[in-house]
## 1
Amino acid sequence: MAVNGASGRNGLPEIQTHEKKADGIFHHDITAPVNAQTIDELHSLQKKKSAPTTPLDGIQGPFTAVSDDARSKQQLQSISASLASLTRETGPKVVKGDPAAARQSETPRVVGHHHHHHQRHVSRTINVTDSSLKFTHILYNLSPAELYEQAIKYEKGSFITSSGALATLSGAKTGRSPKDKRVVRDETTEHELWGSPNIEMDEHAFMVNRERAVDYLNSLDKVFVNDQFLNWDPENRIKVRIVSARAYHSLFMHNMCIRPTPEELEDFGTPDFTIYNAGQFPCNRYTHYMTSSTSVDLNLSRREMVILGTQYAGEMKKGLFGVMHYLMPKRQILSLHSGSNMGKDGDVALFFGLSGTGKTTLSTDHNRYLIGDDEHCWSDKGVSNIEGGCYAKCIDLSREKEPDIWNAIKFGTVLENVVFEEHTREVDYSDKSVTENTRAAYPIEYIPNAKIPCVGPHPKNVILLACDAFGVLPPVSKLNLAQTMYHFISGYTALVAGTEEGIKEPQATFSACFGAAFIMLHPTKYAAMLAEKMQKHGATGWLVNTGWSGGRYGSGSRIKLAYTRKIIDAIHSGSLLNADYKKTEVFGLEIPTEVEVAR
């Protein structure tokens, strides 16, 4: 360090911290001042606007010569049309961005479905409640970081946990409400729908609920809009739009659906199916077919779903699953309530089972590639995951038992209804104070060995999981094709506590296709397609009990997960096919005398 005779600031000698260069010039290490005159200008420099990512040169398509402003306007017009009231035949005036930020802006971009000439009035009318005058702010396909900010700032009960996940509450409903699910029966669906789980409603009742949901959403200052995909098979994917009032719901669906690339989003166009989630607002119990303040309504002809009176995010996930159960068989594609993974040699296994049977846990295996944990399609090309994420039960979760799921609970993950330590924000996964049905929703790429894209060849093994509460079924049985069809259609298991409202202890149940609550067509339709594909591609059927052994619930003990994993490993390796078997007299099940454990 040297002191120069030249004057610095305030007339003090200038201090040099570098040696004199060969050119005879001292080089200062003082950086230039920030290019801002106010703190607001400084903050504006902090956020960088995304540049267009789609190369337009030489590409033909609807957006080839469209400017960024025009493309954004087209997106807003499409969203306004989705939110249109059918009685007024017009959509709301919509503007992108947070209303809090818009109040500081002089000229926000505003688009209405029919009214484009009121742009300059947005800052004056933002708090007007009359739907014909107010503007609705659209928070469109926000990133997880942006949704964290929205949730923590505006939604009570939202916290960042010690692992970085977002802890949220789903309100009074902590599970699905199957008795409040309704499906419109019309000329198109009247002779197609299976009656048992699909309680009917008519078109008029649906439109009453739709209008109620749309009016509620339009009354808000802001709504969240997600444009995403279902099905990793590019030839059979479905475009879905989710309109919701909570950042929690938007982040949940961001994780659970397939996330479009910026290029795909620019060319998204009109969705194939739309969800209106107004779950914070009840349905009108005087409306025909309503039996409570909750209603989850599907209209397959209109390709729309309406949610009223429940904030449980799983309703959206399973509602879309029902849609796929209707649409895919029409394309000769089998939709399945199953997990799927693939070995390093390309051998694919399907895992069937209801919530709580271990489907997510067993399909998440660090020695195999994960295709998906819950919903799949089986086409002529092989299997494909319907979703872009995983929805895992968290009760009694531990790093030792389920390391992949444990490590997936990080920034971006939604933790539903968990309890955490007030100061450290460390989650207590054994705490059932809110509900036993605690859940984690995370993108599938959070699993290190996820196979991206989530597709695979035809399955080699079809594993039916049953949580037997009575200690009757053996830990594993090999099935012939007829037995596989029988157990697939029967879908015997026990409802595990917390999976549905009112379930406190395991109850024996029979759920067709291991997912009767979600299927739309008669179970024999799906069973026939499964038998055909298994026979054509040489798949072997297995029945694995993840429930109780040595006695029923209360006297016996639940089969340890480690034992079940060893059985599954033997199925994957093929060693169980070569085992010695004995046949039971009553059910004719083939039970291996021992399971060879790989060392």
## 2
Amino acid sequence: MGEKPQVGQTSSATATISDTDDLDGIGSIFADQALESSASSGSTSLHDRMTPLDPSQWAYDSGKVIEKGAVILGGVEQAFGFGLRQQYFHKAAILIVDHDEKTFTRAIILNRPTDVMLDDDINPGVKWRVWYGGDVEGLESRKPSIICLHSLKEFRIVDASVPIMKDIQWTTFENAQKLVKVGVAKPTDFWVFAGYAGWAPGQLMGELERKSWYMVATDSQTLLKELARLGAGSDPRDAGLETWDLLMNMIGRGETARRNTDTFDDLMLKEWALKHLLSTEAGGGAGEKLKVPEGTPSTQELLRTNPIDRLVSRVAAASRGEDVTEGSLVRASSADRSPFLLDNQVFHKSVVLIIMDDESFSVGVMLNRPATKGINIQITEKDSGKSRIIELPLRFGGQYSVKGSEPLLWLHCNSVLRAAKVGSPLGPQESGIWKCTAEDMVNAVGKGLASPEEFMVISGVCIWTKGEGGIARGIQGEIKSGRYEVVPSSRTELVWQALKMQQLLTTENLNQTLLAGEEGWKAGAATSSVRDKKPTETEGALVFKSDVKVATLCDDALRSWVATFLLGKPSLDS
């Protein structure tokens, strides 16, 4: 990690920079003619819309050389990109500010400007524009890590800074405030970064070998000009993509950049930027804190309530369609901009059966996510004595397992089976979904009470925790926040019948399986909620600077998740 010098102090790490110091990133490792060759070849393939290059600017692909002052570009040739998680790394330009191969590599993302302003508690009325530097100790952390890049050469500023490369240094936010206070600098002299990206020893090298990144050596003027351009009023929703394009062209990878324009990952990055870079005042979500809705008690407050009062409250909530008990069905939000667009995409348009709800957790299983594996069951018909093997699709219920419970959950929703007492009801309503065992299923089919298709078998569960802060109230909190909706018990049978149409997941039936799952999700909508649904600002909305509807992108993200994690074929996500 880099040192944090104070104004007026000096150390060996902050010596005055001279023109002869080797601080050009990685320039000392290569011959001068190699630099000239890279600079000339890189400057000939720029897009017309890119920042014009000064003859002195250069950049080249430095292979796998990791060093302070080097730039890491987000790769686009790896098998599994950043579309489904960590979208901020997609097409990122990341400057290494500290590197020790035995301990840690620390870097900041350069091309993610926000329009969020930080107040200054030392200089009244002064505000600082902040940039997203990375996912570690960012603005949402209790103690954000904030550093300020600059290219100032006044000796007091240099003494309070740590050099990264020629003409680029960093200092702490506190130092920058003090320097402005004493009049040797202005707020606009600094670029303020909150958060950083970090790699353990050997981690970054492993990711380079998987083509997750490209290593780049470049001159300071190229980076300073891009920082100046981005800081001069660029829209945060652009997510700094032009900076990545510029550097890719300069290192001779312009064709790769052109082939990977307006991709799924690009669109996901723009949606991430809307939520994390654009301020709430401008219609985004940057700087927004998770708030507990007014009147929402915490789980602990609920437990301290008189049991009779708690029961009355739950009955009233049930009458409003807000209460959830074991055996209840819930379905994911019907909002055009799914709350699961940027993470946990598998929950988009999901149907979940709640199988447990206590003081600590809500536990449920997804019903509409068939997997690629099936369960082979031998059935012996009672009358003929003949045996046959049937295969039931195994459904992905969630990423967790409950210790001490059966690994597979068997379910049915059939009136004949209920009348024959095959299994037991989940929850208080005997007319809903029942749980049973594999033996129950074999016996029932053998007796001719039902066909194998009347049963579902689930592996894995979903878990929602409960805690002190009202919003963490298990599945109730998910419903309160609008991420899930309660399925009326009168529609349980309709949902079940739709989901029976799903088969074992294959490459060929991926789209058909997702459509059948969506039909089950649609069947769970309360008639009144469909009739009373009002248009929202996001209805029919397009992804920034594209003709792709946000609702379509949400469906594409679910498809990508299923293709990647259930089929094991990320290439099918396009």
